[in-house]
Design a protein that fits this description.
Layout: H1 2-26, E1 58-66, E2 76-85, E3 91-102, E4 105-119, E5 125-141, E6 159-175, E7 178-185, E8 191-196, E9 201-206, E10 210-217, E11 219-220, E12 225-236, E13 242-251, E14 255-262, E15 266-275, E16 279-288, E17 299-308, H2 315-336, H3 342-373, H4 375-385, E18 399-406, H5 409-423, E19 428-431, E20 438-445, H6 448-459, E21 472-475
Antiparallel strand pairs: 1-2, 1-17, 2-3, 3-4, 4-5, 5-6, 6-7, 7-10, 8-9, 10-12, 11-12, 12-13, 13-14, 14-15, 15-16, 16-17, 18-20, 18-21, 19-20
Protein backbone atom coordinates (compact mmCIF):
# COMPACT_ATOMS: atom_id res chain seq x y z
CA UNK A 1 0.00 0.00 0.00
CA UNK A 2 2.84 2.37 0.85
CA UNK A 3 4.46 1.61 -2.51
CA UNK A 4 1.22 2.44 -4.34
CA UNK A 5 0.87 5.74 -2.47
CA UNK A 6 4.46 6.69 -3.38
CA UNK A 7 3.75 5.88 -7.00
CA UNK A 8 0.64 8.02 -7.00
CA UNK A 9 2.55 10.83 -5.29
CA UNK A 10 5.32 10.59 -7.88
CA UNK A 11 2.79 10.75 -10.69
CA UNK A 12 1.23 13.83 -9.13
CA UNK A 13 4.67 15.42 -8.84
CA UNK A 14 5.25 14.64 -12.49
CA UNK A 15 1.97 16.18 -13.53
CA UNK A 16 2.49 19.25 -11.34
CA UNK A 17 5.97 19.78 -12.75
CA UNK A 18 4.65 19.59 -16.28
CA UNK A 19 1.87 22.06 -15.46
CA UNK A 20 4.44 24.33 -13.83
CA UNK A 21 6.53 24.21 -16.98
CA UNK A 22 3.56 25.15 -19.11
CA UNK A 23 2.70 28.03 -16.79
CA UNK A 24 6.25 29.36 -16.80
CA UNK A 25 6.35 29.26 -20.57
CA UNK A 26 3.24 31.43 -20.79
CA UNK A 27 3.24 33.61 -17.68
CA UNK A 28 4.31 36.80 -19.42
CA UNK A 29 2.83 36.08 -22.85
CA UNK A 30 -0.76 35.29 -21.88
CA UNK A 31 -0.53 31.84 -23.45
CA UNK A 32 1.39 33.00 -26.52
CA UNK A 33 3.14 29.92 -27.89
CA UNK A 34 5.54 31.68 -30.27
CA UNK A 35 8.63 33.60 -29.09
CA UNK A 36 8.80 37.33 -28.58
CA UNK A 37 11.37 39.30 -30.56
CA UNK A 38 12.79 42.75 -29.86
CA UNK A 39 14.43 43.02 -33.30
CA UNK A 40 11.33 42.64 -35.43
CA UNK A 41 11.85 46.23 -36.59
CA UNK A 42 15.11 45.14 -38.28
CA UNK A 43 13.91 41.78 -39.63
CA UNK A 44 10.13 41.87 -40.30
CA UNK A 45 10.38 38.41 -41.87
CA UNK A 46 10.44 37.04 -38.28
CA UNK A 47 6.66 37.47 -38.03
CA UNK A 48 5.40 38.06 -41.57
CA UNK A 49 6.23 35.64 -44.44
CA UNK A 50 5.22 38.33 -46.97
CA UNK A 51 8.43 40.18 -46.05
CA UNK A 52 10.70 37.38 -47.32
CA UNK A 53 12.82 38.89 -50.07
CA UNK A 54 11.76 42.47 -49.36
CA UNK A 55 14.51 44.97 -50.14
CA UNK A 56 17.36 45.27 -52.59
CA UNK A 57 19.66 42.69 -50.97
CA UNK A 58 19.47 39.19 -49.58
CA UNK A 59 19.81 39.05 -45.79
CA UNK A 60 20.94 36.49 -43.23
CA UNK A 61 20.25 37.05 -39.52
CA UNK A 62 21.03 35.14 -36.34
CA UNK A 63 19.12 36.08 -33.18
CA UNK A 64 19.70 34.94 -29.60
CA UNK A 65 17.25 35.85 -26.82
CA UNK A 66 17.61 35.10 -23.10
CA UNK A 67 14.50 36.04 -21.17
CA UNK A 68 14.53 36.68 -17.40
CA UNK A 69 18.28 36.22 -17.02
CA UNK A 70 19.19 34.32 -13.87
CA UNK A 71 15.91 32.39 -13.58
CA UNK A 72 16.18 28.60 -14.03
CA UNK A 73 13.98 27.36 -16.85
CA UNK A 74 13.33 30.83 -18.27
CA UNK A 75 12.70 31.07 -22.04
CA UNK A 76 15.75 30.91 -24.30
CA UNK A 77 15.48 31.32 -28.08
CA UNK A 78 17.78 31.03 -31.10
CA UNK A 79 16.60 31.90 -34.62
CA UNK A 80 18.34 31.93 -38.01
CA UNK A 81 16.70 33.44 -41.11
CA UNK A 82 17.87 33.74 -44.70
CA UNK A 83 15.80 35.50 -47.36
CA UNK A 84 16.19 37.23 -50.71
CA UNK A 85 14.46 37.87 -54.02
CA UNK A 86 14.90 36.37 -57.45
CA UNK A 87 16.70 38.64 -59.88
CA UNK A 88 14.33 40.44 -62.25
CA UNK A 89 11.32 38.62 -60.76
CA UNK A 90 8.79 39.75 -58.10
CA UNK A 91 9.37 36.55 -56.12
CA UNK A 92 10.99 36.25 -52.70
CA UNK A 93 12.25 33.13 -50.93
CA UNK A 94 13.25 32.48 -47.33
CA UNK A 95 14.17 29.82 -44.79
CA UNK A 96 13.93 29.89 -41.01
CA UNK A 97 15.39 27.68 -38.27
CA UNK A 98 14.23 28.16 -34.69
CA UNK A 99 14.97 26.59 -31.30
CA UNK A 100 13.08 27.64 -28.18
CA UNK A 101 13.28 26.08 -24.69
CA UNK A 102 11.16 27.04 -21.67
CA UNK A 103 11.64 24.92 -18.56
CA UNK A 104 10.69 21.31 -19.50
CA UNK A 105 9.22 22.24 -22.89
CA UNK A 106 11.42 22.55 -25.98
CA UNK A 107 10.45 23.50 -29.50
CA UNK A 108 12.55 23.23 -32.66
CA UNK A 109 11.35 24.07 -36.14
CA UNK A 110 12.17 24.97 -39.69
CA UNK A 111 10.18 26.81 -42.35
CA UNK A 112 10.29 27.37 -46.10
CA UNK A 113 8.78 30.64 -47.33
CA UNK A 114 7.70 32.05 -50.65
CA UNK A 115 6.44 35.58 -51.36
CA UNK A 116 5.15 37.50 -54.36
CA UNK A 117 4.94 41.24 -55.02
CA UNK A 118 2.35 43.09 -57.09
CA UNK A 119 2.85 46.72 -58.13
CA UNK A 120 -0.55 48.38 -57.76
CA UNK A 121 0.84 51.56 -59.33
CA UNK A 122 4.04 51.92 -61.36
CA UNK A 123 5.92 53.78 -58.64
CA UNK A 124 4.27 54.19 -55.23
CA UNK A 125 2.03 51.28 -54.17
CA UNK A 126 3.04 47.67 -53.66
CA UNK A 127 1.23 44.63 -52.32
CA UNK A 128 3.10 41.53 -51.12
CA UNK A 129 1.79 38.04 -50.32
CA UNK A 130 3.71 35.36 -48.43
CA UNK A 131 3.27 31.78 -47.23
CA UNK A 132 5.38 29.50 -45.03
CA UNK A 133 5.27 25.76 -44.45
CA UNK A 134 6.76 24.69 -41.14
CA UNK A 135 7.91 21.51 -39.43
CA UNK A 136 7.72 21.83 -35.63
CA UNK A 137 9.15 19.31 -33.18
CA UNK A 138 7.86 19.64 -29.61
CA UNK A 139 9.75 18.03 -26.73
CA UNK A 140 8.90 17.37 -23.09
CA UNK A 141 12.07 16.97 -20.99
CA UNK A 142 10.78 14.49 -18.42
CA UNK A 143 14.35 13.99 -17.23
CA UNK A 144 14.35 17.57 -15.86
CA UNK A 145 11.44 16.89 -13.50
CA UNK A 146 12.42 16.79 -9.84
CA UNK A 147 10.75 14.15 -7.63
CA UNK A 148 11.24 13.01 -4.06
CA UNK A 149 11.95 9.43 -5.12
CA UNK A 150 14.02 9.51 -8.32
CA UNK A 151 14.20 5.71 -8.37
CA UNK A 152 10.44 5.33 -8.66
CA UNK A 153 9.79 3.26 -11.83
CA UNK A 154 6.69 5.33 -12.59
CA UNK A 155 8.80 8.38 -13.43
CA UNK A 156 9.98 8.78 -17.00
CA UNK A 157 13.63 9.63 -17.56
CA UNK A 158 13.67 10.27 -21.30
CA UNK A 159 12.70 13.11 -23.61
CA UNK A 160 9.39 12.65 -25.39
CA UNK A 161 9.29 14.39 -28.81
CA UNK A 162 6.54 14.76 -31.39
CA UNK A 163 6.52 16.48 -34.80
CA UNK A 164 3.73 18.23 -36.69
CA UNK A 165 3.51 20.37 -39.82
CA UNK A 166 2.09 23.88 -39.71
CA UNK A 167 1.52 26.86 -41.97
CA UNK A 168 1.49 30.65 -41.87
CA UNK A 169 0.46 33.40 -44.30
CA UNK A 170 1.13 37.12 -44.52
CA UNK A 171 0.19 40.26 -46.40
CA UNK A 172 2.02 43.60 -46.68
CA UNK A 173 0.87 46.83 -48.30
CA UNK A 174 3.16 49.83 -48.78
CA UNK A 175 2.55 53.26 -50.21
CA UNK A 176 5.44 55.73 -50.19
CA UNK A 177 6.70 55.81 -46.58
CA UNK A 178 3.81 53.89 -45.01
CA UNK A 179 3.72 50.11 -44.63
CA UNK A 180 0.96 47.96 -43.12
CA UNK A 181 1.13 44.21 -42.60
CA UNK A 182 -0.99 41.33 -41.30
CA UNK A 183 0.05 37.72 -40.70
CA UNK A 184 -1.32 34.52 -39.23
CA UNK A 185 0.73 31.68 -37.71
CA UNK A 186 -0.03 28.08 -36.66
CA UNK A 187 -3.10 28.09 -38.88
CA UNK A 188 -3.61 24.29 -38.85
CA UNK A 189 -3.84 24.16 -35.02
CA UNK A 190 -2.19 20.75 -34.74
CA UNK A 191 -1.96 18.84 -31.46
CA UNK A 192 1.07 17.13 -29.90
CA UNK A 193 0.17 13.93 -28.05
CA UNK A 194 2.85 13.23 -25.44
CA UNK A 195 2.32 9.79 -23.89
CA UNK A 196 3.03 9.19 -20.20
CA UNK A 197 3.57 5.48 -20.49
CA UNK A 198 3.36 4.79 -16.75
CA UNK A 199 0.87 7.46 -15.72
CA UNK A 200 -2.29 6.15 -17.41
CA UNK A 201 -2.81 9.29 -19.51
CA UNK A 202 -1.69 11.37 -22.51
CA UNK A 203 -0.59 14.98 -22.33
CA UNK A 204 -2.09 17.01 -25.19
CA UNK A 205 -0.41 20.23 -26.29
CA UNK A 206 -2.45 22.05 -28.94
CA UNK A 207 -1.15 24.85 -31.12
CA UNK A 208 -3.48 27.82 -31.42
CA UNK A 209 -3.59 30.48 -34.11
CA UNK A 210 -1.55 33.66 -33.63
CA UNK A 211 -2.20 36.86 -35.57
CA UNK A 212 0.08 39.86 -36.04
CA UNK A 213 -0.83 43.31 -37.32
CA UNK A 214 1.83 45.95 -37.97
CA UNK A 215 1.96 49.56 -39.09
CA UNK A 216 4.97 51.83 -39.57
CA UNK A 217 5.82 55.18 -41.12
CA UNK A 218 9.21 56.64 -42.03
CA UNK A 219 9.85 60.30 -41.23
CA UNK A 220 12.86 62.07 -42.75
CA UNK A 221 13.69 64.89 -40.35
CA UNK A 222 16.89 65.91 -42.09
CA UNK A 223 19.26 64.84 -44.84
CA UNK A 224 20.71 62.07 -42.64
CA UNK A 225 18.24 61.52 -39.76
CA UNK A 226 15.17 59.27 -39.91
CA UNK A 227 12.52 58.42 -37.32
CA UNK A 228 10.33 55.37 -37.77
CA UNK A 229 7.51 54.66 -35.30
CA UNK A 230 5.99 51.19 -35.47
CA UNK A 231 3.13 49.34 -33.80
CA UNK A 232 2.81 45.56 -33.55
CA UNK A 233 -0.47 44.05 -32.31
CA UNK A 234 -0.23 40.40 -31.21
CA UNK A 235 -3.43 38.39 -30.90
CA UNK A 236 -3.74 34.79 -29.70
CA UNK A 237 -7.03 33.24 -30.80
CA UNK A 238 -9.53 33.45 -27.94
CA UNK A 239 -7.50 35.94 -25.87
CA UNK A 240 -7.22 39.70 -25.63
CA UNK A 241 -4.78 41.44 -27.96
CA UNK A 242 -1.52 42.97 -26.80
CA UNK A 243 0.52 45.61 -28.53
CA UNK A 244 4.16 46.56 -28.80
CA UNK A 245 5.30 50.07 -29.66
CA UNK A 246 8.66 50.92 -31.25
CA UNK A 247 10.39 54.16 -32.17
CA UNK A 248 13.58 53.81 -34.19
CA UNK A 249 15.90 56.77 -34.71
CA UNK A 250 18.59 56.24 -37.34
CA UNK A 251 21.55 58.14 -38.75
CA UNK A 252 22.37 57.41 -42.42
CA UNK A 253 21.25 53.81 -41.88
CA UNK A 254 24.63 53.32 -40.20
CA UNK A 255 23.75 53.59 -36.51
CA UNK A 256 20.38 53.54 -34.77
CA UNK A 257 18.61 53.25 -31.45
CA UNK A 258 15.16 51.88 -30.77
CA UNK A 259 12.84 52.39 -27.82
CA UNK A 260 10.12 49.82 -27.17
CA UNK A 261 7.15 49.25 -24.91
CA UNK A 262 5.24 45.98 -24.48
CA UNK A 263 1.72 46.31 -23.15
CA UNK A 264 1.36 44.63 -19.72
CA UNK A 265 4.89 43.19 -20.01
CA UNK A 266 7.71 45.71 -19.97
CA UNK A 267 9.87 48.19 -21.80
CA UNK A 268 13.32 48.29 -23.28
CA UNK A 269 15.77 49.77 -25.73
CA UNK A 270 18.16 48.57 -28.40
CA UNK A 271 21.27 49.93 -30.07
CA UNK A 272 22.71 48.80 -33.39
CA UNK A 273 25.03 49.71 -36.23
CA UNK A 274 26.03 48.60 -39.71
CA UNK A 275 29.60 48.17 -40.93
CA UNK A 276 30.70 48.50 -44.53
CA UNK A 277 27.05 48.68 -45.61
CA UNK A 278 26.90 44.93 -45.05
CA UNK A 279 27.36 43.69 -41.47
CA UNK A 280 24.64 44.34 -38.87
CA UNK A 281 25.11 44.23 -35.09
CA UNK A 282 22.37 45.02 -32.57
CA UNK A 283 21.64 44.47 -28.87
CA UNK A 284 18.33 44.87 -27.02
CA UNK A 285 17.68 45.12 -23.29
CA UNK A 286 14.23 44.69 -21.73
CA UNK A 287 12.92 44.93 -18.20
CA UNK A 288 9.49 44.17 -16.68
CA UNK A 289 7.18 47.03 -15.68
CA UNK A 290 4.51 44.95 -13.94
CA UNK A 291 4.38 42.36 -11.15
CA UNK A 292 6.38 40.07 -13.43
CA UNK A 293 9.52 41.56 -11.90
CA UNK A 294 9.09 39.06 -9.07
CA UNK A 295 9.66 36.25 -11.58
CA UNK A 296 12.87 37.49 -13.14
CA UNK A 297 14.95 40.45 -13.99
CA UNK A 298 16.19 41.63 -17.35
CA UNK A 299 15.94 40.16 -20.83
CA UNK A 300 18.81 40.28 -23.34
CA UNK A 301 18.62 39.83 -27.10
CA UNK A 302 21.45 39.89 -29.65
CA UNK A 303 21.20 40.02 -33.43
CA UNK A 304 23.95 39.53 -36.02
CA UNK A 305 23.21 40.02 -39.69
CA UNK A 306 24.82 40.23 -43.08
CA UNK A 307 23.52 41.89 -46.22
CA UNK A 308 24.48 39.75 -49.18
CA UNK A 309 25.32 42.06 -52.08
CA UNK A 310 24.25 40.82 -55.47
CA UNK A 311 27.14 40.93 -57.90
CA UNK A 312 26.94 44.03 -60.07
CA UNK A 313 26.27 43.00 -63.66
CA UNK A 314 29.03 45.14 -65.16
CA UNK A 315 29.90 42.66 -67.86
CA UNK A 316 28.26 44.72 -70.60
CA UNK A 317 30.70 47.59 -70.13
CA UNK A 318 33.69 45.22 -70.23
CA UNK A 319 32.27 43.45 -73.24
CA UNK A 320 31.90 46.76 -75.05
CA UNK A 321 35.57 47.60 -74.49
CA UNK A 322 36.57 44.18 -75.69
CA UNK A 323 34.27 44.54 -78.68
CA UNK A 324 35.97 47.80 -79.68
CA UNK A 325 39.37 46.13 -79.58
CA UNK A 326 38.10 43.20 -81.62
CA UNK A 327 36.57 45.65 -84.09
CA UNK A 328 39.86 47.48 -84.59
CA UNK A 329 41.74 44.25 -85.23
CA UNK A 330 39.04 43.02 -87.53
CA UNK A 331 38.97 46.25 -89.54
CA UNK A 332 42.74 46.06 -90.00
CA UNK A 333 42.48 42.47 -91.17
CA UNK A 334 39.65 43.32 -93.51
CA UNK A 335 41.67 46.10 -95.13
CA UNK A 336 44.43 43.61 -95.86
CA UNK A 337 42.02 41.09 -97.36
CA UNK A 338 39.54 43.56 -98.87
CA UNK A 339 40.15 42.62 -102.50
CA UNK A 340 40.00 38.87 -101.91
CA UNK A 341 37.26 38.67 -99.30
CA UNK A 342 34.87 41.49 -100.12
CA UNK A 343 31.77 39.43 -99.40
CA UNK A 344 33.13 38.24 -96.07
CA UNK A 345 34.01 41.82 -95.19
CA UNK A 346 30.44 42.98 -95.68
CA UNK A 347 29.12 40.02 -93.72
CA UNK A 348 31.60 40.65 -90.92
CA UNK A 349 30.57 44.30 -90.65
CA UNK A 350 26.92 43.34 -90.37
CA UNK A 351 27.65 40.78 -87.68
CA UNK A 352 29.76 43.21 -85.69
CA UNK A 353 27.10 45.90 -85.93
CA UNK A 354 24.50 43.45 -84.68
CA UNK A 355 26.70 42.43 -81.74
CA UNK A 356 27.45 46.05 -80.88
CA UNK A 357 23.76 46.97 -80.94
CA UNK A 358 22.96 43.97 -78.78
CA UNK A 359 25.66 44.96 -76.29
CA UNK A 360 24.36 48.54 -76.18
CA UNK A 361 20.78 47.35 -75.65
CA UNK A 362 21.95 45.04 -72.85
CA UNK A 363 23.75 47.97 -71.20
CA UNK A 364 20.58 50.09 -71.23
CA UNK A 365 18.49 47.18 -69.91
CA UNK A 366 21.00 46.62 -67.11
CA UNK A 367 20.71 50.24 -66.01
CA UNK A 368 16.91 50.00 -66.07
CA UNK A 369 17.12 46.98 -63.73
CA UNK A 370 19.50 48.86 -61.43
CA UNK A 371 17.08 51.80 -61.18
CA UNK A 372 14.14 49.44 -60.61
CA UNK A 373 15.96 47.79 -57.67
CA UNK A 374 15.77 51.04 -55.67
CA UNK A 375 12.66 52.51 -57.31
CA UNK A 376 10.99 53.40 -54.02
CA UNK A 377 14.03 55.26 -52.67
CA UNK A 378 14.32 57.21 -55.93
CA UNK A 379 10.67 58.21 -55.79
CA UNK A 380 11.16 59.56 -52.28
CA UNK A 381 14.24 61.50 -53.38
CA UNK A 382 12.36 63.04 -56.34
CA UNK A 383 9.46 63.93 -54.08
CA UNK A 384 11.76 65.71 -51.61
CA UNK A 385 14.15 67.39 -54.07
CA UNK A 386 12.07 68.30 -57.11
CA UNK A 387 11.22 71.91 -57.89
CA UNK A 388 7.94 73.50 -58.92
CA UNK A 389 7.01 76.75 -60.60
CA UNK A 390 6.70 78.55 -57.23
CA UNK A 391 10.32 77.96 -56.17
CA UNK A 392 12.69 80.94 -56.13
CA UNK A 393 16.44 81.31 -56.43
CA UNK A 394 16.72 82.66 -52.86
CA UNK A 395 16.05 79.19 -51.49
CA UNK A 396 18.33 77.13 -53.68
CA UNK A 397 21.69 76.98 -55.45
CA UNK A 398 20.22 76.38 -58.86
CA UNK A 399 17.77 74.29 -60.87
CA UNK A 400 18.94 71.24 -62.87
CA UNK A 401 17.06 69.37 -65.61
CA UNK A 402 17.63 65.78 -64.46
CA UNK A 403 17.37 63.00 -67.04
CA UNK A 404 18.69 60.16 -64.84
CA UNK A 405 19.57 59.26 -61.24
CA UNK A 406 21.87 56.44 -60.12
CA UNK A 407 23.69 55.53 -56.93
CA UNK A 408 27.06 54.55 -58.47
CA UNK A 409 29.32 56.87 -60.45
CA UNK A 410 30.25 54.17 -62.99
CA UNK A 411 26.59 53.60 -63.81
CA UNK A 412 26.02 57.36 -64.17
CA UNK A 413 28.89 57.63 -66.66
CA UNK A 414 27.55 54.64 -68.59
CA UNK A 415 24.15 56.34 -68.87
CA UNK A 416 25.84 59.52 -70.12
CA UNK A 417 27.49 57.53 -72.92
CA UNK A 418 24.15 56.03 -73.95
CA UNK A 419 22.48 59.45 -74.21
CA UNK A 420 25.39 60.85 -76.20
CA UNK A 421 25.56 57.87 -78.53
CA UNK A 422 21.84 57.44 -79.16
CA UNK A 423 20.55 61.03 -79.03
CA UNK A 424 23.68 63.20 -79.18
CA UNK A 425 22.68 64.70 -75.84
CA UNK A 426 25.48 66.27 -73.78
CA UNK A 427 25.04 65.81 -70.04
CA UNK A 428 26.90 66.33 -66.79
CA UNK A 429 26.80 64.70 -63.33
CA UNK A 430 26.10 66.24 -59.92
CA UNK A 431 25.67 64.70 -56.46
CA UNK A 432 22.98 65.62 -53.98
CA UNK A 433 23.90 67.17 -50.63
CA UNK A 434 24.18 63.92 -48.62
CA UNK A 435 26.12 62.14 -51.40
CA UNK A 436 23.60 59.36 -51.95
CA UNK A 437 22.67 60.01 -55.59
CA UNK A 438 24.42 60.90 -58.86
CA UNK A 439 22.04 63.04 -60.95
CA UNK A 440 22.66 63.20 -64.72
CA UNK A 441 21.44 66.58 -66.00
CA UNK A 442 21.29 68.26 -69.38
CA UNK A 443 20.88 71.90 -68.35
CA UNK A 444 21.07 74.08 -65.26
CA UNK A 445 19.88 77.61 -64.61
CA UNK A 446 19.06 80.04 -61.81
CA UNK A 447 15.49 80.48 -63.04
CA UNK A 448 12.87 77.84 -62.32
CA UNK A 449 10.80 79.13 -65.24
CA UNK A 450 13.68 78.65 -67.66
CA UNK A 451 14.39 75.20 -66.18
CA UNK A 452 10.78 74.14 -66.77
CA UNK A 453 10.99 75.32 -70.39
CA UNK A 454 14.14 73.28 -70.96
CA UNK A 455 12.42 70.30 -69.32
CA UNK A 456 9.64 70.45 -71.92
CA UNK A 457 12.25 70.51 -74.69
CA UNK A 458 13.83 67.32 -73.30
CA UNK A 459 10.45 65.60 -73.06
CA UNK A 460 9.80 66.30 -76.76
CA UNK A 461 13.35 65.56 -77.93
CA UNK A 462 15.04 62.47 -79.41
CA UNK A 463 16.60 61.42 -76.08
CA UNK A 464 13.27 60.66 -74.43
CA UNK A 465 13.05 56.98 -75.57
CA UNK A 466 16.39 56.29 -73.82
CA UNK A 467 15.65 58.10 -70.55
CA UNK A 468 14.82 55.53 -67.86
CA UNK A 469 12.70 57.73 -65.56
CA UNK A 470 10.55 60.78 -66.27
CA UNK A 471 12.80 63.90 -66.43
CA UNK A 472 12.37 66.32 -63.54
CA UNK A 473 13.80 69.52 -62.06
CA UNK A 474 16.29 69.10 -59.22
CA UNK A 475 16.29 71.94 -56.73
CA UNK A 476 19.85 71.84 -55.40
CA UNK A 477 20.02 71.96 -51.61
CA UNK A 478 22.09 74.48 -49.73
CA UNK A 479 25.11 72.61 -48.36
Amino acid sequence: MVGVMKSIESIMNLRNAMVLGLLLSTICLRAQQTPLYAHYYLNPYLYNPAMAGFGEQSSAYFLYRKQWAGVDGAPETQVFTLDGNLKNHPVGLGITFMNDITNIIGRTGGALTGSYEVKLTPTTQRLRFGMSFQAIRNRIFFDRIRAEDISDPNLLENVDAKTVFEGSVGLSYSVRKLRIGVAGDQLFQNTFDHDEQAAFRTLNYTLVRHFYTTAEYLFEVGPNITIKPQVLVRTVQGLHSQFDGYVKVGYKDIVWTNLMYRHDIGAGASLGFKLDDQYVFSYAYEFPTTDLNIVGSSTHEFMLGIKIHRSTPGKSEISQEQAKEIMQNSVHQEKMDALEQQNEQVSGKLNRTERQLQSQNEELERLKQVVESYQQDLELAIENLSANKNDTTSQTQGFFVVVGALRKFDNAKAFQRILKREANLDTRVIQNANKTWYFIYSDNTDSVKEALEKLEVIKKGPAMPFIIETPWIYKKETE
